[in-house]
Amino acid sequence: MINKGNVRGVILAGGSGTRFWPISRTKRPKQFLSISQDNESLISATARRLVPLLGQESIWVVTNIEHKPLVEEHVPYARIIAEPVGRNTAASIGLAALHLRCENPQMVMVSLPADQAVKDEEALRRTLQAAIDAATETGQLVTVGIPPTSPHTGYGYIKQGKPGVGRTFQVNRFYEKPNFERAKRYVEAGDFLWNSGMFAWKVETILKAIQEFMPQLHEGLMRIDAVLNTAREEAVVAEVFAGLESISIDFGVLEHARNCAVIAAEPFGWSDVGSWDAWAEHFTTDENGNLLRGDTVVVDSRNCVVHSEKSLTAVIGADNLVIIDAGDALLVCPRGKVQDVRAVVEELKRRNRRDLM
Amino acid sequence: MINKGNVRGVILAGGSGTRFWPISRTKRPKQFLSISQDNESLISATARRLVPLLGQESIWVVTNIEHKPLVEEHVPYARIIAEPVGRNTAASIGLAALHLRCENPQMVMVSLPADQAVKDEEALRRTLQAAIDAATETGQLVTVGIPPTSPHTGYGYIKQGKPGVGRTFQVNRFYEKPNFERAKRYVEAGDFLWNSGMFAWKVETILKAIQEFMPQLHEGLMRIDAVLNTAREEAVVAEVFAGLESISIDFGVLEHARNCAVIAAEPFGWSDVGSWDAWAEHFTTDENGNLLRGDTVVVDSRNCVVHSEKSLTAVIGADNLVIIDAGDALLVCPRGKVQDVRAVVEELKRRNRRDLM
Question: Which chain A residues are within 8 Å of B330, Cβ to Cβ?
Fold first, then answer.
């Protein structure tokens, strides 16, 4: 039914997230960090998980030109599409779709973020396989939805509609990240799923949807398509991307499209590793609930996250603190306030401290 | 009445305190640190405060041989007595007394720790002058007592006896550092003073008292006295000090002597700067009560002490935290737990981390 040769995995690694400052920086965003005991980076793990499903030769990565060397290091077998400047996921997916269509107009594309964590990899692959099958059979835009386990305010939500082919449902509606009250109502309603940011579709389907709902992007993509794989490609991409708005595929296309389906994932222990707090859940703690990495002395403390890259970090009598020492910058913060690290990065920007961003 | 030429100030700078780890280290003890906005070290300030009273040429410093270069840098005009190994204040004071007696047998000695803070310097000098006068006139061992402002458990206490000459009282008894309940009773009693560690006495008086109550130390001092200012002095001091017990002048002599007087100091804003918390009181805080030194970004935080020597320190949503980044070592600790920094230093000792001690 599904022809493996017609499917490509496209890993979106354009992020330059600040949520893991001071470890993540402009020059080393989150996807290149490790959150596992064996020091495998998030992007390496994302690619490795796809290989049994698609083969190494079918893994593509879209990234900023600045991070191309890092991608080559972390996923040596990947084919890389370099963006001159980040313009969010709609542009990345559109550009990848051009390249895949050039290989084969019937190509099916599985698109997924580079920086997520998954515990049950077999279950992930079964879910992706089901999404690929549905996209192939129905020609729909298929999103992988995660059955919510808490009223998380850091995720978008999808309300399921009528059952569709196989394990899919029609999408009733996409919802942006809610506040806590709203998130609670969604979870209690029972027919909401988290938007995982993992998608499957035929390249012709997504390009058609881009044409309909983001005509300016489509026009730019067509200019690129005309010079794809020629000496002029780089210059045209640079020119087109410079003029693009920064819009996500969800906001720019999926929320408007009528042919959207969602597939409820098997519970495969998914996380978008959105904060230091979420990061800490992927490690083993000591008997006092402290997660300690690097050179540390911890006395009379509980449930702390201590990550010390260069110097010794000593902690006395502390509860629920996050302490991240990156050598040239240090973060100290209660676990409940880790989302506010953005405020620090904003302040550094204001002070023009590019050395620390 | 008092002949300025017959008085010497002896600053005891033998400390190797761990209470200011990670800033203070074996190689740079507390007395060489600054706690003022203008970066004057504690020992520099201690010496400078004595100069109007005694003159630069009358300032002596007793220190460990290892710290002699630091003393030369911080108090360039001082005469330095170098100890081969620290044996607490009884040995330091005895050794200094030999040197002063060699200059002039009638010499009066004002002895004081190198690492205290004083706000009203004129008031300090008036009090020291009164102590010198009393020691000169009465031949007593005079301690400067500080009227207590709180039931502090970090200080020794002195119970006043009958009034003596001038502003002095006989010492009824010395008390070691009390627990909180006991300290409260002392303060409520009204006739207790904190033991400041500042003393005045004739050299012949203190040497006689050492002879009576610490005969072993006295015997060693006499062996040193026989070779003082000769080529053999250094070797004999090394040999004698190696065999000495480590005993404070309070415990070894003053608590036993009958000719002890105490003089109640004018309120001159005294502190022994015994912890990071006390240290913080000497600086101006921001509008949220945060004391910030070095490169910091502090968001939504109150009453924190942040000292960042080399890297940037970012703090979010924290209350009452002490964060001290010395470059190669970092301390994070609630303000109420700063005394426990000793536990960290003990642990470093156990791990044989001499690089950080």
Answer: 308, 311-314, 323, 325, 330
